Amino acid sequence: MPDGEESAAVPPRYALVPDPHGPGGRLQPLAEDGTPAGPPVRADRLADSVAAVEAAEHPRWVWAAADSAYAPLLPLRLARCHDLRLTEALLLGHEGRWGAPRSLGAAWARLRGLPVPADLPESGPTDEQAGLFAPDRLQLAPGTDPLDAVVAVHAEQQRRVAAIADEAARGRFRLLVAAESAGALLAAEMAYDGLPWRSDVHDALLTELLGPRPALPGAQPRRLVELSAELQQALGGRPFNPDSHSQVLKAFADQGVQLASTRSWELRAVDHPAAALMIRYKELSRLHAAHGWAWQGAWARGGRFRPEYVVGGVVSGRWASRGGGALQIPRILRRAVVADPGWLLVVADAAQLEPRVLAALSQDAGLARTAAEGDLYSALAATAFHGDRDKAKLGLLGAMYGQTSGDIGPLLATLRRRYPAAMGYVEAAARTGEDGGVVHSRLGRACPPPSADWLDLTEAADAGEAGGRSARARGRFTRNFVIQASGADWALALLAALRRRLAGMESGADRPHLVFFQHDEVMVHTPADLADRVAAAVTESGEEASRLVFGDTPVRFPLSTAVVECYGDAK
DNA sequence: AGAAAAAGCGCC
DNA sequence: AAAGGGCGCTTTTTCT
């Protein structure tokens, strides 16, 4: 397991249920298969009791969902958990019941043959007071004891995992459950700790690009007002709204410039002085609207940006975020992410993760040899593309994403000849998708089945061009899914391994903590004297993740690591 | 009036 | 440089 590798003994389990209000709650020890190993215990101060059990027994905590059970206990740190809601979603997908409600109440209702409540819409920052931690978010029927439900649903989940017939697949799925649950711990912790954010640096950058902050909250900053005026003048002087696509298209058309859209790559190809102005306006307007002063006031106060992460929010297992756009911070704003005095940032990203995942998944001996190198694309180019790295990259990306357009045909033919196992792997995944089938990540995360609309479109007797297009689109999805989702498996295992290593480090009263995770990139905020140890832990965690997820493979998954004061200096 | 869709661009 | 899959967010436009 990523978070318990060192302990030979299986850790004990404890069900944990906080009271709906107040600091109390209940615990109950459980055996590995979920049967109670002792009576429930009441705790008047749940955080104290949990801390004591954590120190004495290092258990795996079993709870309905981290946001209701773990967030109220922070800053207490727990090593392991089994998150019932995330596990329910993984199991439902694996069992072909994708999309069924996954709350504790829904799982309990299925177990008892009761009507199954639909999942509530995800919470947002606005309903914090409205009861983010309220018990009704568990969707339990009135009168149900939540501890009974946690114990019963957990036992049922353990039974369902044990029922996976193939032993190797079962082991990998257990790893997936543990890693996803570790992600739940980490997401709550990162939201609590926040990413170091220098509002003064952010503010200076905005002022440099947009002009001074407008006195009125809704007002346009000076630079945008100027650009609007210049645009209007360049396009004949008639007023129009540069934020309205249709008005922009019309304004250009009036000058004899026909555009199919206002996309910036299309504008870039236009030979008209207004095009550059329009592109600049869009860039700055977007910065102002999405990451300007209003964003700062809402999300980055008190020296920390506190996003809300959604573990497993993307079907591939990648995380999503809710509010604040944590995973879409513009690169230019990275300079506002600065370590506290006496602290440093360790920033690491997995180099060329997806082609390496393909090499490991397909066990293509030739591709694996290139993926044993530091720069996979150069090695690939040397072997198969006469040293042309661009072509090698182009071809491999096209193969992984199902690209057919452009001059990519010959590149794909070369790849097919040199790396038949790798190309066969993605093409089989595509065929499965086109036929309406389901594919899985390395650890067993399932992709969604085709929708009813899709089936109508593609399986009708007269399924014509639209049906074919739709089938090919799903083929591209499943082709990419096996790689993206297996990459997410690896990244989750990396996180779990790194989190465990960081928990063992301290410098006085301070300790390093993860503060950012974005698909294949992690950031640790650490006391400066621990930075080298943190960097080493990143490397070790990458190796551990590779071994756990892909087993014995010659493929390497190197991380490029930078130790910096400012995120903007990381690469 | 409010919800939903569309367009467009940010990140991987 | 983009293509290709995945998202979130904001604004405008359209629908109910």
From TrEMBL:
<keyword id="KW-0378">Hydrolase</keyword>
<keyword id="KW-0540">Nuclease</keyword>
<dbReference type="InterPro" id="IPR002298">
    <property type="entry name" value="DNA_polymerase_A"/>
</dbReference>
<dbReference type="InterPro" id="IPR043502">
    <property type="entry name" value="DNA/RNA_pol_sf"/>
</dbReference>
<feature type="region of interest" description="Disordered">
    <location>
        <begin position="1"/>
        <end position="40"/>
    </location>
</feature>
<protein>
    <recommendedName>
        <fullName>DNA-directed DNA polymerase</fullName>
        <ecNumber>2.7.7.7</ecNumber>
    </recommendedName>
</protein>
<dbReference type="GO" id="GO:0004527">
    <property type="term" value="F:exonuclease activity"/>
</dbReference>
<feature type="domain" description="DNA-directed DNA polymerase family A palm">
    <location>
        <begin position="330"/>
        <end position="530"/>
    </location>
</feature>
<dbReference type="InterPro" id="IPR001098">
    <property type="entry name" value="DNA-dir_DNA_pol_A_palm_dom"/>
</dbReference>
<dbReference type="Pfam" id="PF00476">
    <property type="entry name" value="DNA_pol_A"/>
</dbReference>
<keyword id="KW-0235">DNA replication</keyword>
<keyword id="KW-0269">Exonuclease</keyword>
